[in-house]
Amino acid sequence: MSYIPRVIACLSFSIFALLVSAEVQFDTEQPETAVEIVDELINKHYRKQDLNDELSKQFLYKYIDNLDPAKSYLIQSDINEFQRWETELDDMLKRGDLTAGFVIFNRYIKRATERLQANIDLLESDYQFDLNQDEQLSIDLDELPWPQTMAEADELWRKRLKEAYLRLILSDKEPQAARDLLIKRYSNLSKQLSQRDNEDTFQVFMNSLAALYDPHTTYMSPRSMENFRIAMSLSLTGIGAVLQLEDENTKVVRVVPGGPADKQGILQAGDVIVGVGQDQDEITDVIGWRLDDVVDLIRGPKDSTVRLEIIPATGESAGTNREIAIIRDKIQLEEQAANSEIIEVNTDVGNYKLGVITVPTFYLDIEAYYNRDPNFKSSTRDVMRLLSELDEQKVDGIILDLRNNGGGFLQEATTLTDLFIDPGPVVQVRYSNQMISRNHRSHADAYYRGPLVVLINRLSASASEIFAGAIQDYQRGLVIGGQSFGKGTVQVQLPVRQGQLKLTESKFYRVSGNSTQHLGVVPDIELPSYFDTEKVGESADENALPWDQINAVPHRRYNFTDIPLETLKERHVYRQSKDPDLVYLNQELSLLRERRKEDSISLNESVRRDEMAKYDTTLLTIENQRRQSKGLEPYATIEEWRESRSPEDDDTRDLSERDPLLYETGNILADYLSLLAPKSLLANQP
Known about the structure:
It is a single chain. The protein is an alpha+beta fold. It is built from 23 helices and 19 strands. The strands form four sheets. Strands 3, 4, 5, 6, 7 and 8 form a six-stranded antiparallel sheet that branches. Strand 9 and strand 10 form a beta hairpin. The radius of gyration is 27 Å and the shape is globular. The N terminus and C terminus are likely disordered.
């Protein structure tokens, strides 16, 4: 029997009818816009891909997936009905027929509205969730089939509601407060659905097609363009985080260096935002919201406070809800500027003073640059100044930290490389017409000729990959860290009748001929990483352009990596087994990987509490092992440990604890220095 009381469903029918009676229809200009977008994709995209029957089939299922990614509302009979358009969408779109897209959208709205009202009815009834019953909810959405019947959908939603309710109970919500919050969640979602219009529908429909060409090709509707323009012109303030919609959740892709969230120190890539509140106001649940609506809630006046309810991806709070407060601010160019520090590394092979230059992004004050302001600000000029300052302090080598650097100006990637190599090519660019440009070159003699290590991770992308790839190809220095993102494409903005199309027109290639696309830059020595390469990075998207090669371009080779790399790796592996902070990091990552393997979740309260307690106990055990190895007093409880881990205390902690990966990079550079030829021989290279 269905979990929804049928009498309640009948009473609610009139509400359903009111909400779904006004179906969304396309306007007179959208068909012509669709034809224009199709023409641009076929003729100008780097991937020469015709819109044919095979792509039509992919288009249909991509659109359905974009509408209902968690298989929450539509059922198998809907999918069966939509299949009549499998090989028709291509021809329909070429002639500007949007009928199928809008019929599917209206069906989705109808099903979703009915489902959300049914959820509200259940929560407002006297139905009680049995939290002592042993049952599981599948969380592997990729393997989840469409419900065959409404009764099957009812049962799936009963479990989803129970899990949402249980999660709130585990976060110390009172039972009635948990029900009230869920009622508000589904009421807000229903209200949002009722506000969807033909512009929303058309944007989702056309982006479902654009995504089949590659992840960076997107259509922006006139309203989305206007919102973006206002955000840029008014410099609306927020928290400084790049967000994306994943299934029904708002996920943090990247924390912007120098922004409010970065300064606050808790929010990390991979965290999920489930609620947003203003100052002391009640937090609004945002599960299932559109991304732009979530962003609007997070934005606000400078110096005001936004409270976020998040589910951390890593750390001692992973998997459980926690609340954080961030003071909004405008992100200043100066706060994203390159900065430096000196670290001391004492090893068995010697004591070294190392300069660390962190480059959060490849920035350029473009207005000052074009106005010929002699003091224009850029990442290259700042790094040059920092190199000079570090040279005066007689550092033995340089670590250039590009972790979390998502790119920026291509010109800056070229000029930054120019500081470390003599004249020569830096990157090749191949366009959709297969023409290859090698105009991005180093033109001056190297400014710094000493030992160099480039530190990267999975969030190092685009311009970061061009720089790291060039340093690696020239054998100018070691690249250490994690495999980079793999974003090796260039986009161009094309206006269309309604809105704008961002389209991929070219690809980057290293001087070795290898593309940075998809594969990214593979480090010479790999460090432990929090990032799951199957979930984060270009290769995580099934429609990403592939890795490939073109001809290498002649370039010099330096002798900075002409050393026994295996010796460095052996010493690194040895330290990972002995250094307390690296041992802890690897144990934490192992625990995280095990949690990622789980494809279902228990709906039994005692089981979930036992799992939480076991996870906390394991984390506390490995943390205390780390502390005892360093001669520190162990923590008595997990609460004592959490209270001690304030972001404000980061500056007082040793580098080995605060940033064990940078600390280990320093150790690797120290080993590297001990194996290098005398500096007198390096100074005249090449």
